[in-house]
Design a protein that fits this description.
heterodimer, A: 439 residues, alpha/beta, Elongation Factor Tu (Ef-tu), domain 3, six-stranded antiparallel beta sheet, 12 helices, 20 strands, 23% strand, B: 590 residues, alpha+beta, OB fold (Dihydrolipoamide Acetyltransferase, E2P), Rossmann fold, 4 domains, ten-stranded mixed beta sheet, six-stranded antiparallel barrel, globular
Chain lengths: 439, 590
Amino acid sequence: METKSFQKIYCKLTNITKATCDLMAAGVSYEEMAYVQGRAAQVVKINGDLVTLQVFAGTEGLSTDSEVVFTGSSPTLEIGDHMAGRFFNAYGKPIDGLPIREAKPVEVGGPSVNPVRRIQPNQLINTGIAGIDLNNTLVSGQKIPFFADPDQPYNEVLALIALRAKVDKIILGGMGLTWDDYLFFKHSFEQGYGHSKIIGFINTTDDSPVERLLIPDMVLSTAEYFAYEKNEKVLVLLTDMTLYANALSIVSNRMDQIPSKDSMPGSLYSDLARIYEKAVQFPDGGNITILAVTTLSGGDITHAIPDNTGYITEGQLFLRKATEIGKVIIDPFRSLSRLKQLVIGKSTRADHPQVMNAAIRIYADAANSKTKMENGFELTDYDERVLKFADDYSREILAIDVNLEIDQMLDKTWDLFMTYLTKDEVAIKKEFTDLYWTN
Amino acid sequence: MEQGKYTCKGEITAIVSNMVIVKAFGPLSQNEICYFVHDGKHIMGEVIRISGDKAYTQVFESTRGFKAGMEVLFTGQMLEVYLGPGMLTKNFDGLQNDLNKMSGIFLERGARTYPLDTDKEWAFEPLVVPGAEVTAGTWLGEVDEFGTPHKIMVPFRLKGTYKVLSIVSKGNYIISDTIAVLAAPNGTEVKVTMVQTWPVKIPITCYKEKIRPSILFETGIRVIDTMNPILEGGTGFIPGPFGSGKTVLQHALGKQAAAEVVIVAACGERANEVVELFTEFPELDDPRTGKKLIERTVIVANTSNMPVASREASVYTAMTIAEYFRAMGLRTLLLADSTSRWAQALREMSNRLEELPGPDAYPMDLSAIISNYYARSGYTLLDNNEKGSVTFIGTVSPAGGNLLEPVTESTKKVARCFFALSQDRADSKRYPAIDPLDSYSKYLEYPEFDAFAKKNIAENWLEEVEYMKNAMVRGREVYEQINILGDDGVPVDYHVIFWKSELIDFVILQQDAFDPIDSNTSIPRQKYMVEKVNQILRAQFSFDDFEEARLFFKRGIYILKQMNYSEFESEQFREFERELAEIINEKVMA
């Protein structure tokens, strides 16, 4: 705890709950940071001279004569180029213990971008994963979550995308990450990039859940610094937003607020929107793209957390195990990128939209044929052919470990069309079959 | 509101998020605006409850850094908007700040900009002569704003009859010039400029009476105009889960609707969607007038990351601007996306005020607030016997897609048209995903609309639409039976009934919002298609088996869809028409 000379120290707490404590103090400002017995806390309520502090690390063991000092400022972060390659805790302190150099303190959770100053997102982000690049193209400035069940390998997929994406900075916000997953991210990033591109803000399951609430603001203020001041392309990874929302509900419960649907605070939509809406394309070329993870319970997307998220984000991605090849793919049916229309067929080859739709349609036919097969019905020749198509399509194109350029994905899909199907069955505009239907 | 004129002062005593309690040293009034003096900036708030000398206020911006004891200035006035020429093409925030005039990339706290252009000259033409008797809302003159005749009116706040002492002659004036001097009944003189203010939470009622809507409000969307029409001055709402196409539909309405002025309130939704409007509207043409879309549009953007309290204000700001244009005798359309976000803003505040909650923690009076708001739209007969209208269409984002939640239910009680978006239709890419059976328009039962349709569309229009709707219902019923009994388990007739309903679905209901021709269907064309489809629905066909029926209708659907994509009555259109007649003649029974 850093105290300055002549700083006022309070030492009489009047009330202590599981997450908050009260004391009499004058001249305190709203959302100001304070330290209670060395633990970081924030002003969440002022009533005359009675101040309520939210203690991030929890109030266990605090005594009524604990020392309280106010810092006089809202949460700030020492932002600068020193951050590249380093990992920080929820308070923005480096986990490596080394000092911070040439940084300037920036208030986190700053103002929103004026909507008229935004630019319509228009740059494609390549990931090499066909489930994204081909079927649900990611656009810089977009915000999109993975809706995943806890048993699915969402963190691995997130790391893979981060390693493949052609961006300038990757900022990881880990909320309630298991220690193992933290090490996984750290190692895979260090192997992939060394120390240039990655910045992490980590709250693990070892830490207090309430500390998680600080992570998105820390991450996004850093992202704004690199995207706005340095004109860099920044990819933000937030995992797991469900645990963030749960922390919100813990706090609102402690503050005696009336819960709305699924015990979530009534402000959940605004709280999540404030984070996701930081995704932006700035006029000077920098941008922030947000890839998040929202874990579901039992695949239920009507729960308040995924539901509110779906109303905010620009699409959603689902993972699925393709049983025919035993590998994970990005579900081509349920996933959606709302911004793909801005780039496909424009920054990619003109046949992209048609090839994408035709392949998914045939893949859907294959799913029907499979049901038919499982129910013991006789298969037609078409059924047999689309099943083979689906097999190859999953293995050679969709599987998450395949790494291709978009043109290669398109060419390969054409190959499969030609191998198993006729022009009529594929039903793509003549101008494209003339070009690409080569046999 | 001019700064510097304050009714009383106060100081902050308590702060919880954006709810601040202020001890006032003078009289208070409910819903008055106050300013919090923080770091030399004036941050706006609104009084929402008074208890003794304490004012409970909602602050329109972040309260970070506020302290107990901080100075507060009360204005004694409610939240007001400036009304005058220059609003079209503008992008406002929820408090009517001109977003384009704000400096910098980020919205700085306490920054405010004047919504109109102070030094732009307008070509004014007087419409009254000295000596004329006028009341609030009387048209004194007119300026041309991108081809829209923008009326300069007697300020709405003036009560009683005034006499025009003088009015300026035809010429160029700026909005703050005095264009007329009026004499009150007691002789005092009132100077009138081209700009006036009005409190957003009070409806503008400068009209003789509200009349029942009767005129079709054309949207060019078949499932609305034909199946579930909305009328001029009518109300409608669009509930739907995420991904069901609410915003695409709202944007289509904003582009195509037969309105003279369109107000788009982007209330608590994605910023990139508003950016789409900013990017596209200046480029696209209004299909009816040929001017740019932006030139008939006012955008009120309070996106989801902008402060919650001004989200609540934004819907009122938008409605007041719409009412102002209605008082000029204009056909005005107000779109709000989404009213659920507004209701959530009400919930957050009610929660902080520690009011006893209603269902899903929404305030108890949610229903009343929503119905009062919808009631502000309407078709009006003005004092000079001209007519003006505000047609209102709001979207609702029901939690979990469940239509039994409080916002949807409260809205259903007041809105006359219900355009239910269905997840199933969206999943099977049947766009617009408006469910043909769940949706309704109460206007189909209005004798006024019947009379209008008889005169302007077709003598038997409502019967034709009813016939088609019944065919749709029948199709849905037999579809379930086919599913249970199997293709072979039902008579061929059942398949015919099912395929007839599919024909309606593919040809009338589904529409390609991204195709330049299909996206916007004129009323004569809708009439033509309804007749064409009903002709097929009424025909008796003979098929040997269900497969033959399937192939026939697939072919029919294909041809009719190609007609939808062709220029109306073009050679290509006629070609498809002939082809259709041929295949029908082959199969129809005499």
